[in-house]
Description:
CATH architecture of the domain at 3-147: 3-Layer(aba) Sandwich
Number of helices: 12
Helix content: 25-40%
Largest sheet: 6 strands, parallel
CATH class of the domain at 3-147: Alpha Beta
Bound molecules: S-adenosyl-L-homocysteine, iron/sulfur cluster, FE3-S4 cluster
Amino acid sequence: MPFESSPQSHDLIEYANLGVGKRYFIITFGxxxxxxxxxxxxxxxxxxxxxxxxxxxxADLIIINTCAVRRKPEDKVAGLLGKLKALKNEKRDLLIAVxxxxxxxxxxxSYISKRFPHVNLxxxxxSLPRLPELLQxxxxxxxxxxxxxxxxxxxxxxxxxxxxxxKAWLPVIYGCNNFCSYCIVPHVRGRERSRPLEEIVAxxxxxxxxxxxxxxxxxxxxxSYGLDRAAGYDFSDLLVELxxxxxxxxxxxxxxxxKDLSPKLIETMRTSQKICEHLHLPVQAGSxxxxxxxxxxxxxxxxxxxxxxxxxxxxxxxxxxxxxVGFPGETEADFEETLSLVEAVRYDNAFTFLYSPRxxxxxxxxxxxLTHREKEERLQRLVDIQNPISLxxxxxxxxxxxxxxxxxxxxxxxxLLTGRTRTNKLVHFKAPACPPGSLVEIEITEARTFNxxxxxxxxxxx
Length: 462
Ligand code: SAH
Ligand code: SF4
Ligand code: F3S
């Protein structure tokens, strides 16, 4: 798989032999931004001699890339670190490093170093470019090294080992300025930093040249792209430039904040050939009172009008969302407004979460008004409304022929292949010899709530 390297740009040469003969294993939690960070981590490690291990037991270096957005992924990391102690006892030279969003929180970093002294390195989201240097220190020193300083952290020119050879993540803006009251992300990822447009377009061209067909532009709120640079361009302008990159077949992006999704962006999506007909538009809650307490800065009415405008411009677009259940002070009436919004919008899919207080956020000082069980009951009611809608929308696709980008053998049934539609739906289908990365036409024959089944029409296009 493609490996781009330019060690000179970040003085990696100094550490060029650090990993020779050694193997690494990376465990990733959290969002696509973290997945992309893990690809950069792998690229960095390989540029200093490391090679990939097939499992943690075979590794000389284990890196855990953490997520702090809810308590659950944090608990999983604590469990994992406990288990790794035995491995470290067997293999004294094993290096264990904990990076990412959890580590960036001061209290967590110091908790990890005290509670899990077998961890060699705790490094934050700003420290990724310094990883080789930090690993060298960690290998020489006893105890846990902690590096969580917020410093300028340009990623330009860092090597990357991508996990796919036909679809790629492309970060366009790092950080977040929105401070939704429940959210830890702005606290651990810092303020918005847009990458220069020319660099993103150059990277997209390189990817297309390597045979990549699909790019997904990443940002906590892609709609703020460019505004911090005051360079006179915005997210729509970036999309227009990327549309011109020859060889790319599909452009995706996430996430869009409803308060900033502009008519200009809708128009850009409408006229584009490559931007996929899918929009992830997190609503979080259906009640204006709760939206206000969440500091989302839009109303239910604004959101519904936005959905109507998008559907009018791009008929058949798939809409997905994120919803938090059980925010402090959420009454039964508030929750019913979430249910009625879900019924009104008819999402293709909704990612639903129980509210999880995060230390340091504004909402953490609000007393929780619901028990865990009450939150779970509400979540179940929400899922019971959403799932039949997802199924109905999918059933309407039966008989239609759709373009699918082949990903590989289906996880549960190796006689089937799996791929995604432009609307980002997972399709399992029977087909002879379609290599991963081909674009094929699939006739949908069966619909389920979370995926579709189909058969090959004819191999074509690329
Ligand atoms: N930037 C993206 C979201 C990043 S976090 C956006 O604004 O949409 C992904 C999702 O996790 C959020 O959309 C939200 O639904 C959920 N989430 C964030 N903080 C949470 C918390 N404290 N408790 C429960 N869910 C949370
Ligand atoms: Fe969190 Fe809100 Fe920023 Fe999304 S927009 S990352 S939910 S603060
Ligand atoms: Fe992503 Fe989790 Fe960090 S959602 S930005 S990995 S807190």
